[in-house]
Amino acid sequence: MSETDPRAPITRPIPPPPVSVETRPFWDAAAEGRFLIKRCADCGKAHWYPRAICPHCFSANTVWEESPGEGVIYAYSVLRRSPTGPFAVGYVTLDEGPAVLTNFVDVAPGDLAIGLRVKVRFQPTEGGPPAPVFAPHT
Ligand SMILES: [Zn+2]
Questions:
Q1: Is residue 5 part of a domain?
Q2: What is the pLDDT of residues 94-129, one digit of tens each?
Q3: Cis peptide bond N-terminal to 49, omega within 30
Q4: Residue 102 C-alpha to ligand 1 middle, in angstroms?
Q5: What CATH number should be reported for the domain holding residue 92?
Q6: pTM of this prediction?
Q7: What is the distance in angstroms between the CA of the first residue and the CA of the last residue of the chain?
Q8: What is the mean pLDDT of residues 48-57?
Q9: Residue 135: which of 110, 102, 99 has the closest Cα?
Q10: What is the mean pLDDT of the chain?
């Protein structure tokens, strides 16, 4: 496949994500193929990325919640000049509400579209836990 072929599906090595005490439960679940988000028990809103303090109301009463990891593309950008070939990054609005900054995989850059339904999957990284990426989903 040519690097300039707009029909070629995106494959891209993902660097290992940073893991902190605050995000450890997320990465432990990711290693089992489960996608977790956090929800505030006080205001009821979900958020991403996972934080101990609710970004909406600053409550410390946040709990982990398993998500199907489904949503729609809110915005994306295709970066064509890369040593590993074109890749795409952007925001997914999860069905629960939060926006996730992510990489898109297994999709031709020309098939990306605002509003396209996508679902999370986990891509292995070198020396770290698998990273959440998104691919088209019907
Ligand atoms: Zn809250």
A1: no
A2: 999 999 999 999 999 999 999 999 999 999 998 899
A3: yes
A4: 24
A5: 2.40.50.840
A6: 0.88
A7: 26
A8: 95
A9: 102
A10: 92
Q: Looking at per-residue confidence, does 84 or 97 come out higher?
A: 97
Distance from Cα 3 to the centre of ligand 1, integer Å: 45
Q: How many residues does the chain have?
A: 138
CB of 64 closer than 8 Å to CB of 36: yes
- Domain span holding position 40: 24-136
Q: Kindly state whether residue 39 falls inside one of the protein's structural domains.
A: yes
| Ligand 1 center–CA 87 separation, angstroms | 34
Domain count, the chain: 1
Cα separation values, 23 from 27, 28, 37, 44, Å: 7, 9, 10, 20
* Alpha helices in the chain, H assignment, sequence order: 24-30
